[in-house]
């Protein structure tokens, strides 16, 4: 999805304004004219200048290109769902990992995505279970990363 | 001499050698599969290197990327789909050779030139870095401030043809770097009460998001059908190679020099090195009309240039802590986390470590020849790996990697946010490299500025009082003014044309 430069310009201007307003809450350094607010203010100024330039350029280009140009995939439901599934999978993991545990979460995410991307049920199930066990074994046993066990805590190995 | 012996002992250790071999296999695999890039390979590797000692960690990254950049040639030549962006410049050329029945020649040239270019870049690295480091020992916060500015400026201008978008990307990166406890007053900035953000946006999860999650998003929304795997067997890739190399030895040297130089410039890496080398090769060729129709000459330049660029990028990274490309930016992030701050003092305190790194680079580029040969033989099998199963597995790997750094789910959140941000940015022509450099160099920039201001008692002219600082400062300011001057001249030229036309 390509957006007109002007849209980015407006977003950047708003962001810079909010950021610079927020720096007013930062404390000043006693006896010095430069404090924690200096760099954010400089960055905010830079973003404001760039945002304004993007708006100018976007408006100039408006005759030639649409404000929002959708990519090929935005027209296809299959691809829209695919796209949404990735952040959804991450969100699912963030919310459910502590309760369900790593293994159930990973198997679910893998199985759903593999099937969704066009693999057969059996291949997806085998991949989901095998990949989860290998990754879990490697990280939790070899690198000692405390991946959450969740529901499987009673049978943790 | 003692240091060199110590360095060899560090490298010729069974663990390090095993790490090198496994990384080589990993790099070849990732490079040969379209949609998985060398930078992504580094980002995926980082959670593992996090648990290693410095030498195997750096060896792993150096080997992986050297292998991946060559392996990107394989699908480029056989399918016309570059395996990594660094092969994009000459994928058409190599594919045209394959269609003319010269797949072996294209791949063999790519392989040998990659190894030779990599060795050239490494030699420059091993020769230049210690000398530069000695020079850099005299640098104070003033010089570091200007160096960081210069590096970031380069990144904005080189990484894209639209400096405006490069600048936006850089500012976003610098903003991300300001999140967390500030270094001068100890005040938490932009943390909004979150304890997790006090230490700043966690670098590794951010990298995994920007390089791996964004790539997964691109894969699941790709509308083109998966390419057909070629059926023909690949014969002896070394046949007739001697003649090619003898004939184009000047190209080999030129490609290596261009690659190393572009690698050293911050913000530009192997992909840009290959594009420039191809353009230069065509411009100075005796037969430019044959380019794009399956002519091997350009392949010599580019094959050497992209691998030379990889090593070149380490020069500023090791000596000044200023990354030459996205890959070394990730490396610097890793080194900081290990408490081993890159910079000239490393050459004094732990010279054996630096020499061990150089030795690893030589080994990686030498091992490229036999292992790359094996990868070419297995090319058809490699290209048949079902990506629809691979991509979900990579997603899980990303989740674990982002989690493993601080053992909190917050890392996964950072990864998701940065991944979406990088995807939107790249879709709209905002380059990612400046943002990465901004994130890595933001702290150095602010730190050196604040220290310098205290030293100079708030007098901005203090930044120009030391000779080297003044020189760097003038160059940086000149670069900043360059687009304005060029724009003004263009407008004046247009105005003159206009008055001429109407006068």
Description:
The complex is a heterodimer of chains A (157) and B (503). The two termini of chain A are 46 Å apart. The model of chain A has no long low-confidence stretch (mean pLDDT 88). In chain A, helix 1 (5-23) packs antiparallel against helix 2. A two-stranded antiparallel ribbon of chain A has the order 1-2. Chain A is flat. Chain A contains 5 helices and 2 strands; from the N terminus they run E-H-H-E-H-H-H. Chain A has helices at 5-23, 38-61, 77-100, 102-116, 121-142; strands at residues 2-3, 68-69. Chain A is mostly helical and 157 residues long. The longest helix of chain A is centred in the first third of the chain and has 24 residues, at 38-61. Chain B is mostly helical. Helix content of chain B is 73%, strand content 1%. Chain B contains 23 helices and 2 strands. The interface between A and B is large, with 64 and 52 residues.
Strand order, largest beta sheet of chain B: 1-2
Shape of chain A: flat
Largest interface: A-B, 64 and 52 residues
Order of helices and strands of chain B: HHHHHHHHHEEHHHHHHHHHHHHHH
- Taking all Cα atoms into account, the compactness measure Rg of chain B is 23 Å
Distance between the termini of chain A: 46 Å
Largest sheet of chain A: 2 strands, antiparallel
The main pleated sheet of chain B reads as: 2 strands, antiparallel
The computed structural class of chain A is mainly alpha
Ranges of chain A where pLDDT stays below 50 over 5 or more residues in a row are none
User: With helices defined by DSSP (H or I, 4 residues minimum), what is the helix count of chain A?
Assistant: 5
- Give unreliable regions of chain B as ranges: none
The average pLDDT of chain A is: 88
* Count of runs of 4 or more consecutive helical residues of chain B: 23
Roughly what percent helix of chain A? 55-70%
Oligomer: heterodimer
How widely separated are the two ends of chain B? 75 Å
What is the H/E order of chain A?
EHHEHHH
- Please state the overall shape of chain B, judged from the principal axes of the Cα atoms: globular
Mean pLDDT of chain B: 87
Tell me the number of strands of chain B.
2
